[in-house]
């Protein structure tokens, strides 16, 4: 199988993907067959490679993305035990609003809620103004990265919060859907990004109170 790998030789990319398959197949042994794990890993690599800027990071991001997708598939299908509610934040680029909301909810929840974010058309990177605004509250986006919206992440969510992505998010029965009218921070000056951050923080705190009374 030939995978897009930027500056990496194709055989190196294939070897890295196979190592990820081995690791995740072992982790999910008894839940998913190796063939299913391999399909998720290869698809995740291909999806992330479409918007990756630094392709040397692709293997590590692929491992994280595929792991989250497998967890979500297991959760949605009842193969894995569900212990806390899960919230999915969706915007267009998964670089501003949805990343901000996910980071804030994760920061305040202390593990009481599982958090995901995704974009209908993910961009290449998170704006520095967004990272800086969250850092002022002690919230880090160091490990965050834009990722595409997938079927299983929606199916696994108890609450889906959309922001500016229209009808891109599929609707499944049994989920609670919210649409937040929050401006896009991309391209905004720092003062405007802080106002968006504070609005988002208030919304996230309110949602957390509802989910964890």
UniProtKB/TrEMBL annotation:
What's a GO biological-process term for it?
Answer: response to arsenic-containing substance
Gene3D superfamilies for the chain: 3.40.50.2300, Corynebacterium glutamicum thioredoxin-dependent arsenate reductase, N-terminal domain
> What SMART domains does the entry give?
LMWPc
> Has keyword Flavoprotein?
no
Q: Which UniProt keywords apply?
A: Arsenical resistance
Record keywords: Lipid biosynthesis included? no
Q: Enumerate the spans annotated as Phosphotyrosine protein phosphatase I domain.
A: 85-210
The entry's protein name is Arsenate reductase ArsC
Q: What is the lineage of its organism?
A: Bacteria, Bacillati, Actinomycetota, Actinomycetes, Pseudonocardiales
